[in-house]
Each structure stands twice: as C-alpha cells, then as structure tokens.
Amino acid sequence: MTDFWLAAGLLLLVALSFLLIPVLRARRSQPEEDRTALNVALYQERVAELRSQLEAGVLTSAQLEAGQAEAARELLTDTENAAPVAPSHLGKALPLLAAVAVPVLALGLYLHFGASDKVELTEEFSQPPTSMEQMTQRLERAVVAQPDSAEGLYFLGRSYMTQNRPADAARLFERAANLAGRQPELLGQWAQALYFAGDKHWTPQIQSLTDEALKDDPREATSLGLLGIAAFEGQRWQQAIDYWQRLLALLPPSDASRASLQGGIDKARDRLVAEGGHPTAAPVAQTASLKVHVQLSEALRSKVAPGDSVFVFARAVSGPPMPLAVKRLTVADLPREVELSDSDAMMPSLKLSNFGEVQLMARVSRAGQPTQGEWIARGETVPSNSSALQSLTIDSPDH
Fold this sequence. Notes:
Elements: H1 2-55, H2 61-81, H3 93-113, H4 116-125, H5 132-145, H6 150-162, H7 166-180, H8 184-197, H9 204-216, H10 221-233, H11 237-250, H12 258-274, E1 289-296, E2 309-316, E3 325-330, E4 336-341, E5 357-365, E6 375-383, E7 390-394, E8 396-397
Parallel strand pairs: 1-7
Antiparallel strand pairs: 1-4, 2-3, 2-5, 5-6, 6-8
C-alpha cells in the first residue's frame, strides 16, 4: 500500500500546483506594483522641489518646464519597463481554499468508492502465507471484498474444513453453488460439510446432494468418499467397498490417502466375508490426457519477452473454476507440444478424468501469475480423453 499512497500523493501535488499558480503569480507581481508606486512618489516629490526653487527665484519658468518634462520622461521609462500585471479574477482566498479542499475531497471519495482493501489484498497474496491461520484470514478478507466470487468462497470453505469448522464451510459452499451453478465438485463439498456439521448424521439433503453430484459426474471424488463412509457406518459393506474402490481408481499412485482408503476397503471386505458375503472385484482405473501444440502468433512476437511465463491449462466446462491440469513454460520454449494429464492435477479430487469435457487455454504472464496475464488463447471444448492433437495459438489480449 505504501507505493500506492506515494503515487496518489504525487498526483495530488500535481493537481495542487495548478490551483496555487494564481497565488504564486500574485506574489511575484507584488514587487512590480511596489516599484511603480515608488516611481510615482519620486516624480511628485521632484515636481514639488522644482516649484519650490521657482518660487525662491532659483529657477526660471523655462527651467521649471524643462525639469518637469525630464521627470515625466523618467517616470514613463520606468513604467514601460515594468511587466504588465494580469488581473486575477479568483483572488487569493479561493485558490487556497481549493488547495485544502481538493485532497480532503479526493481522500473522502476514494475511501467511499475506491478499492484500497483489494489493493492491500493483492499485495498480501503476492507473499506466501506463513501459517494456515494467516491464509484463512486473507481468504476471509477476500470474500468480504468480493462477496460474489465463487472461487473465493470455495477456497475459504476448504480452509474452514481443515480447521474443523464444517458448519461455516457448508454455508460458504452453498453460496458458491448458488453463484457458480450446481457444479458436482461444489455439491460434493457442500454435502461433506453438512455431514460433519451434523455430527455424521446422514440426512435426505445430503443424499440428494450426492445423488445430484454423481448424476452429473459419476467420478466426483468427494461424493464417492462420503457415500462410502455412510455405507460403512450403516454396515452396508459391499456398497462401502464399491464407492471406495471407485474413488481409489481416481487417485494418483503417489496420493498419500490411498493407504488409508485401501485400509477401509480391506476392513469392509473382511466384515462382509465374516457375514458370509462375497466381495466383487475392483474396477479398472481410468486416466485421461490431452496433447496440445502451443504457439505464439507472429503479431505478438515483438510484444513479449523470452522470459515471460506461459501457462497451459485445462478447465472443466461444467465444474469448478480452477484449472484441472497445468503446465508452465516460457515464451522462449514456444512453439512446443505439451501433454496435460491426471498427474498435472492441482488437487487430487480435481483431475481431467473426473470431467467429461474441458476447455484448453494458454496464457502469457509477465508477472508469472497463472490467473492474470497480458495475452491468451482459448480453445474449443474437447473430451477429456481425446487422443487428437489439439492446437492453441496465443493471439488475443487477456481481459
């Protein structure tokens, strides 16, 4: 914020300089007015002295006239050499009053209509948080500054879940779903928050949310995990195994939660066998990948630098607003073919294979920010498991 207020202060100084010009000019003209008045007084004194000398008989009438003419020429010469004074219609009080009122009025208008809180948040988010509490506080201020941002509500809800505040998270996920549409990922998170907020009591609302989420996306991870928990608690061992096996198939091999999930499946299988049941086989894991050829238009080559960052990513057509898979390059790397797959997922529960259709995009960012840049390419909607080579040409301003 320091840089912002310094820049605002400099602009105010420029504005005040224009307002104070009449006052400064008036002060510069004052010496000229004083000198003219002095010359007139000296002329009058000289004429009076010449007349005294005439009365005393020292001068003749001709000498008096010559002396008066000489004094008049000197007065005229001094007056002509003085710079003309332009009349001021503003006076001195009005510019001084405006000089005080302008910064006060500007500050008041900015505090009312401005976005200093958003400027401060932008500066804060440019620095990594030192703790989860600090990140939560930043997200809370971001939601206050942008209450209609579904993305901000989503991430704050996830933060509340990690801090064991499911009731607060449920309210945020509900707001996000109302703003961004009833996307499967949001519905699953909403149902999970309601489940833990209700002390793990399954309700018709939770069942409705998970059913709706899996109807739109059968691979919605949060709903699968939650339904597996509910089935296990209800001693419906085969259903728990089915839901958890479907979820296990979606997780990458390096995911730390695979071990605990597999342990739950084993427990459900053992109890099913102990009751005389026969567990079914696990489903085959599904993966997705997309090959993309990224290039820069000829018109933009002179407007970018080789070190500018290039982000290639896929975003769900019907799903959360955050990217599903991301690769980072530089302008110097273009043109280049890249592959986006489940291994490039930003979150384990948000992978390409979890969504049927995606949109491919590429962005050039001088600041290295994946969400903000100067130039962008937006591709057509494609299936997440398409084997055809896709093409992106960065050629449009990023608004």
